[in-house]
């Protein structure tokens, strides 16, 4: 049976299936799926059949590994919510671990049974033993690997630092594998060297995973620290504004008699109207309090309304966010602060009196969706590039970044972002499905 080509073809197919299922499990553990289960499984089955076809055609091991990494990365980025960098890192690490375990397992079996490494890798019972051991250890390693989750993102700079040693280790393992296969003599020293090198590379791989985990954890902590600082800054601004408004109210109350005396001494109705208008303007500037059901949004709206008053922008809000309590505070902050900042910047560009400057924010509930409409007047030109919205050259980076941040947050909650605009208006619509338990309340 061990001399049958059909038997070994079945063994190779079975081994390949285990490897693909293992990396599929890894993808599902460390990342969130963005396609339907049906689409996900169909594309995975297509990958399996593609590799079965490659298995029938005898391809060089280096080319086969390269195809495995590229196809896995393409499948990963299409079906899961991951960045391009992460879609490369995970398959590279998986390939590195897989190669290391396979060579190490074969080397250990060669030492125990006192046979040549190349004999273990040929069609023999030792080969079956090596496959069983290596795939079992690989599965355990994936469970260990999944423990880290790797839920953060890696910067381009960190990617270069990590990618170079990973690729180097893969090349070394392939070289060791090819060298060991070509050995014709049964030499214990050679077997020890193979096991030693494989062990070092495996230890190196484990430390690489730990380093990547630390990088991701540090990046996540930095982001959280930044968001906390922004949150504290917003709260400080809000409380300072409240204190300032209280001071103004006390001052107005104290000066009310003087205002009445001044109004009584004015000669014309126009003068009275102008004087009363100035007082109303001052009173309106103090009325910046909101009650949306979300404290963070209340603070943001109060801060942004003050900016709008200074820039003569009509700011209207009709918000009830009580049913969005499942959305993270930081995410709410990113959505509203970015959207309103973009709207204010667009209004500030309007220099003509013929176009009214306004920002309107409305929240409605349709079926089981929360619909947030943020509309503003504009005069600047807006372009679309590869499905992304950009404005004029001076601020396209910041505006594009704000819209991108909003889309990323909304995608987290399986929502949608829609953008409509004409020559004078810009409308941003955000639809977030409400969790069933929240909706029933």
UniProtKB/TrEMBL annotation:
<keyword id="KW-0808">Transferase</keyword>
<dbReference type="Pfam" id="PF14501">
    <property type="entry name" value="HATPase_c_5"/>
</dbReference>
<dbReference type="GO" id="GO:0016301">
    <property type="term" value="F:kinase activity"/>
</dbReference>
<keyword id="KW-0472">Membrane</keyword>
<dbReference type="InterPro" id="IPR032834">
    <property type="entry name" value="NatK-like_C"/>
</dbReference>
<dbReference type="InterPro" id="IPR036890">
    <property type="entry name" value="HATPase_C_sf"/>
</dbReference>
<protein>
    <submittedName>
        <fullName>Sensor histidine kinase VirS</fullName>
    </submittedName>
</protein>
<feature type="transmembrane region" description="Helical">
    <location>
        <begin position="6"/>
        <end position="27"/>
    </location>
</feature>
<feature type="transmembrane region" description="Helical">
    <location>
        <begin position="63"/>
        <end position="82"/>
    </location>
</feature>
<keyword id="KW-0418">Kinase</keyword>
<feature type="domain" description="Sensor histidine kinase NatK-like C-terminal">
    <location>
        <begin position="329"/>
        <end position="433"/>
    </location>
</feature>
<keyword id="KW-0812">Transmembrane</keyword>
<feature type="transmembrane region" description="Helical">
    <location>
        <begin position="124"/>
        <end position="147"/>
    </location>
</feature>
<feature type="transmembrane region" description="Helical">
    <location>
        <begin position="159"/>
        <end position="180"/>
    </location>
</feature>
<feature type="transmembrane region" description="Helical">
    <location>
        <begin position="89"/>
        <end position="112"/>
    </location>
</feature>
<dbReference type="GO" id="GO:0042802">
    <property type="term" value="F:identical protein binding"/>
</dbReference>
<feature type="transmembrane region" description="Helical">
    <location>
        <begin position="192"/>
        <end position="216"/>
    </location>
</feature>
<keyword id="KW-1133">Transmembrane helix</keyword>
<feature type="transmembrane region" description="Helical">
    <location>
        <begin position="39"/>
        <end position="57"/>
    </location>
</feature>
């Amino acid at each position: 049976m061990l001399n049958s080509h059909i038997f070994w073809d079945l063994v190779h197919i079975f081994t390949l299936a285990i490897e693909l299922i293992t990396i599929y499990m890894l993808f599902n553990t460390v990342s969130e799926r963005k396609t339907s289960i049906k689409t996900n499984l169909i594309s995975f089955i297509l990958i399996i059949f593609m590799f079965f076809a490659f298995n029938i055609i005898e391809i060089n091991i280096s080319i086969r590994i390269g195809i495995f990494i590229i196809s896995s990365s393409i499948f990963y980025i299409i079906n899961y919510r991951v960045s391009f960098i992460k879609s490369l890192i995970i398959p590279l690490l998986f390939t590195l671990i897989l190669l290391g375990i396979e060579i190490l397992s074969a080397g250990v079996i060669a030492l125990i049974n006192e046979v040549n490494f190349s004999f273990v890798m040929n069609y023999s019972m030792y080969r079956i033993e090596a496959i069983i051991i290596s795939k079992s250890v690989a599965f355990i390693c994936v469970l260990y690997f999944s423990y880290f989750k790797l839920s953060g993102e890696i910067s381009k700079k960190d990617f270069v630092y990590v990618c170079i040693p990973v690729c180097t280790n893969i090349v070394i393992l392939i070289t060791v594998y090819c060298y060991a296969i070509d050995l014709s003599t049964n030499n214990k020293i050679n077997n020890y060297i193979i096991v030693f090198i494989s062990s070092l590379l495996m230890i190196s791989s484990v430390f690489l995973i730990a380093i990547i985990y630390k990088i991701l954890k540090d990046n996540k902590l930095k982001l959280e620290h930044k968001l906390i600082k922004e949150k504290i800054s917003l709260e400080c601004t809000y409380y300072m504004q409240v204190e300032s408004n209280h001071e103004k109210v006390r001052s107005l109350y104290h000066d009310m008699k003087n205002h009445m005396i001044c109004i009584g001494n004015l000669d014309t109705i126009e003068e009275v109207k102008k004087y009363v208008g100035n007082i109303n303007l001052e009173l309106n500037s103090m009325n910046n309090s909101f009650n949306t059901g979300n404290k963070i949004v209340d603070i943001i709206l109060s801060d942004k309304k003050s900016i709008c008053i200074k820039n003569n922008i009509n700011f209207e809000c009709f918000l009830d966010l009580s049913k969005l309590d499942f959305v993270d505070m930081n995410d709410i902050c990113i959505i509203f602060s970015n959207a309103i900042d973009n709207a204010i910047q667009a209004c500030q560009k309007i220099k003509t009196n013929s176009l009214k400057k306004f920002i309107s924010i409305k929240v409605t509930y349709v079926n089981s969706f929360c619909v947030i409409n943020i509309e503003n007047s504009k005069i600047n030109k807006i372009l679309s590039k590869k499905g992304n919205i950009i404005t004029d050259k001076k601020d396209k980076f910041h505006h594009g970044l704000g819209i991108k941040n909003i889309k990323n947050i909304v995608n987290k909650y399986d929502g949608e972002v829609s953008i409509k605009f004409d020559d004078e208006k810009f409308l941003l619509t955000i639809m977030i499905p409400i969790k069933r338990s929240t909706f029933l309340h």
